[in-house]
Structure formats: structure tokens, C-alpha cells
Amino acid sequence: MAFPLFTVSQLSLFFQVTGGSGFIGYHILSQLLNNRYFVRAAARGKKIELLKKALSANYSSDRFEVIEVADITSGDLSQYLKGVDGIIHAAAPLPGRVDVETAFKISIEGSLHILREAVHAKVPRVVVTSSIATFPLPQGPFGANDLAVVEFAEKHTEIDVTLAGPAFTYGPFAPGFECFLPEPDLSALSTNESIYALLRPGNTRIPIAPGAIDVRDAARAHILALKFPPSTEVGPKRFAIVSPHRSSYRDALTIIAKERPELKDRLTDATLAREWSLYTFPVEWQKIDDVLGLKADSFILWDKTALDTVDSLVHAEGLWKEKGFEVPPLFHHL
Ligand SMILES: NC(=O)c1ccc[n+]([C@@H]2O[C@H](COP(=O)([O-])OP(=O)(O)OC[C@H]3O[C@@H](n4cnc5c(N)ncnc54)[C@H](OP(=O)(O)O)[C@@H]3O)[C@@H](O)[C@H]2O)c1
């Protein structure tokens, strides 16, 4: 099958995104819309109306559509996938929101269901958000979703499949995301909960492994992945993606104290943050550059990620306070 290359100037392309009410998925939607693509976003339950509200506040309603997909693991999606140029599948529960076993099960079943439906509807390309960012692929339950996707892709060369696996993802919420944060619900913060926890003097739960990425870079990687070249030319496309910059929680606390002195008294003791010999981890940089066109020197600096995240969290907190909510007590889900 011949895969047409396309550029951002081709504005009539139509992409479907799952998980659009999530931290990463909403950034993906925002970047697609900023690039003037058409998008169809799948959501469920009360998030359907919230997603419509969030997108309407920022984008013209003739460029997006929000549809209900109540269960990502089953159901006929053919009516929604007809004519779609590509899918970004970013819906899966984070381990910690549901128990780890359930999270893995939904991830695998959701990915395979979306891929099968995509093949059936002749969608040419799918980008799946991987739940892990290690290279090479680990054995056992942590690698099971990626393994299932890789095996599917090998059997179905009629569809082009990319796995994009961001490291711990932090960053500001995309404009409109406050619609999903109407009240203090730490689980709605996704991984930013770990940065929010840094605004607690008594916090001792600082992430124990190195490697991070700004959510804006993670979303950018997904969109670049829609643009080929295909696996038939470059081999399997599974990318662990991490910022090449030193991502140190100790540095983050230091820069927040310096640049946001009003928060100084709220901060976790920086000496509790672990020190590592390496603050990122090895990934296939040459392949990421050659295939995705994602340059190591284009990643957002850690200081900016830390400050923008804190500003975004403090803004959300201000909205909660205006409504009379207390600052939520620390409860670490991740
Ligand atoms: N955040 C990270 O550091 C990180 C790093 C690597 C990979 N990832 C992966 O990236 C993806 C998105 O993560 P995120 O940080 O954006 O998490 P998030 O903010 O919790 O968003 C998860 C999204 O998935 C949807 N979802 C969860 N379970 C679902 C189900 N059973 N059926 C349909 N939709 C479901 C959620 O919908 P509702 O809003 O309706 O619940 C939400 O839209 C996940 O696959 C995660 O494993 C995340």
C-alpha cells in the first residue's frame, strides 16, 4: 500500500483522537487544532460536554467534533472512522487510578480494539500512546501493551502503526483544560500531581526514577508520528521519548524557590529529592530524529517545564479557592 506524505499545509486532513479529556490527549487535540487540522475527539460520560465546552472556548466548532465512545475496549466504531486520515489513541487509565492489573488489561484491550476497528475502516495510520518509555521493550506486564501492538502491526502491514512512549510527563495544562478541573481532584492532574506535591512542605513522595518530558513535546511527538515515513520503509516504529535535558526534582525546587518566591514557604525540602548519576535515559535519538523529525535540541528546558507547570497548578488552585474549596490535602496516587 502506498502511503501519501502530507504536510501541515494540507488542512483538510481529519484525525480522530481518543483520551482527549486527558492531560496528554487534550494537548494533542489542541496542537492538531492549532495546526488547523479537523479533529474528532472521543470522550465518555460527563467528559463529553466538558470537552465540547473546553474546545469551544478556544476553537471554531466547525473544526472539531466530540463523540461518545463509552467503552474503549469494545463496540462498533465504523461510523466514526469512515474517511478518517489517522487516529491518535491516547485513552488508557494510568496505573494508580485503577489497580495496576486493570490498567494493563484496559490498555491492551483498548489498543487492540482501536487497531482492529481502524483496519476494518481502512484508516491508514494509527499512533498509540505507549504506557512506558523504556528502550528496549521490557518483558512482563509493563511491556505487554506495547508487545501486543507491535505484534498486531507486524501482522497488519496494511495499516501504519507507531507507538509513542513518553517518559514522566509534566507541563502546563492546555488552554481550556480547567473545564476538567472544576474542583480539587488530584487524580485529574495526571502526572502533574507529582509536581503539585512539591508545593507541600511535608511531602516526602518525590518521583524515584529519572526521566521526564514536557507534555508539549510529548504531544508534538504524537503529531509528528502521524507524518511517516511508514514502517514498511523504516521498520517497526516504537519510540521511547524522554527529554535529553537534566530533569532533576531538586533543580525544580530550587528554580521554583528562586523564580516564584511567593511559593517558597510551601515547597518540599529539596534535599529529599534523590540525586542520580544520569537525569535522563538512553533512547534511540538517531531514529527519533530520522523518522519523527524530533530534534534533541528542540525539547523544552526543565526549568521552563517546572515553572510553567507550577504556574498552571497555582492557577487551577486559585479557581478552586474562588469557589470556596480548600487546597486539597496531599494524596499521592502515582
Ligand atoms: N502522564 C504520563 O506521565 C504518561 C507517561 C507515559 C505514557 N502515558 C500514557 O498516556 C496516556 C494518557 O495519559 P494521561 O497522562 O493523559 O492520563 P489522564 O490524564 O488520566 O488521561 C487518560 C485518558 O484516558 C481516558 N480513559 C481512561 N480509561 C478509559 C477507558 N476505560 N475508556 C475510555 N477512556 C478511558 C480518560 O477518560 P476520562 O477522562 O473519561 O477518564 C482520559 O481521557 C495513557 O495511556 C498513559 O498510560 C502517560
UniProtKB/TrEMBL annotation:
One Pfam family, short name: Epimerase
Keyword Oxidoreductase: yes
Keyword Ribosomal protein: no
InterPro entries on file: Epimerase_deHydtase (IPR001509), NAD(P)-bd_dom_sf (IPR036291), NAD(P)_dehydrat-like (IPR050425)
Keyword annotations of the record: Oxidoreductase
Membrane-spanning segments: none
Domain of life: Eukaryota
Residue ranges constituting the NAD-dependent epimerase/dehydratase domain according to the UniProt record: 17-141
UniProt GO MF annotations: oxidoreductase activity, acting on the CH-OH group of donors, NAD or NADP as acceptor
Membership in a protein family: Belongs to the NAD(P)-dependent epimerase/dehydratase family. Dihydroflavonol-4-reductase subfamily.
Protein name: NAD(P)-binding protein
Species the sequence originates in: Guyanagaster necrorhizus
